Structure to design on (254 residues):
């Protein structure tokens, strides 16, 4: 049984002291593919470097809505350069976040749209961060997205209507450790996602699932996300592992 962690951040400073050791442990526990996600030009470059260092790690390049403060739109040219390299499999994470960032909505939209256009230019999928910005995110996707260029709603909000619309648009839905939290209303959201569109992720080092909540997350815990989905979908863990593995390979064109 092998697992694909479709969204993790081994370019994060929380792995600075033991990155190589953790990555080795992850692979030895059957997490045999990981996508390391960029969120600004520096982290995107580091994701690329990690993908060169480890055969089973792939990279994305993008500027997240939480990383555009004091950043000029020309920074996207750096993302373009990184994204043209081998093993970069998506533009992301990109999107809108009105929870943490309320004062720069216009700037967020501009960066989101230009990076969607970059993804179309390079024929890459997009990885979407959406928090408290459902209506604007969907409006931009309906107007800007190339129908051939699908993508992923990463750590998808447990919002049944969002999931319905995202699936209609051809997107994949990725779930993280928050679905295991005691107060999570995950059942209806997960049931809404067709098997051929569902993905698992850790968002490491964040969103550590129960029973390890509060500790630093890593990709070994993707199995706990898969286990929760298997329970809700009434499938074996091995089936969910296989389904999500193949789905991630498809959307990332691996």
């Amino acid at each position: 049984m092998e697992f694909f962690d479709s969204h993790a951040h081994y370019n994060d400073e929380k792995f600075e002291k033991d990155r190589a050791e953790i990555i080795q442990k992850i692979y030895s526990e059957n997490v045999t593919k990981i996508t390391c996600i960029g969120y600004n030009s520096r982290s995107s470059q580091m994701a690329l470097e990690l993908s060169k260092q480890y055969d089973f790690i792939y990279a994305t390049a993008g500027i997240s809505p939480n990383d555009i403060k004091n950043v000029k739109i020309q920074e996207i040219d750096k993302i373009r350069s990184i994204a043209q390299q081998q093993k970069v499999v998506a533009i992301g994470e990109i999107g809108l976040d009105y929870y943490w960032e309320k004062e720069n909505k216009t700037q967020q939209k501009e960066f989101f749209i230009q990076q969607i256009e970059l993804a179309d230019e390079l024929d890459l999928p997009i990885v979407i961060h959406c928090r408290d910005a459902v209506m604007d995110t969907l409006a931009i996707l309906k107007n800007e997205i190339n129908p051939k260029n699908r993508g992923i709603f990463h750590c998808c909000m447990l919002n049944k209507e969002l999931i319905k619309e995202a699936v209609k648009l051809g997107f994949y839905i990725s779930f993280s450790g928050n679905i295991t939290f005691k107060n999570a209303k995950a059942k209806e959201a997960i049931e809404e996602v067709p098997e051929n569109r569902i993905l698992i992720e850790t968002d490491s080092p964040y969103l550590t699932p129960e029973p390890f909540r509060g500790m630093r997350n890593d990709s070994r815990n993707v199995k706990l996300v898969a286990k929760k989905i298997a329970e809700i979908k009434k499938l074996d863990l091995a089936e969910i592992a296989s389904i999500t593995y193949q789905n991630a390979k498809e959307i990332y064109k691996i």
Remarks:
- The mean pLDDT is 96.
- The first strand starts at residue 3 and ends at 8.
- The beta strands are 3-8, 31-36, 57-61, 88-97, 126-131, 151-153, 172-175, 198-200.
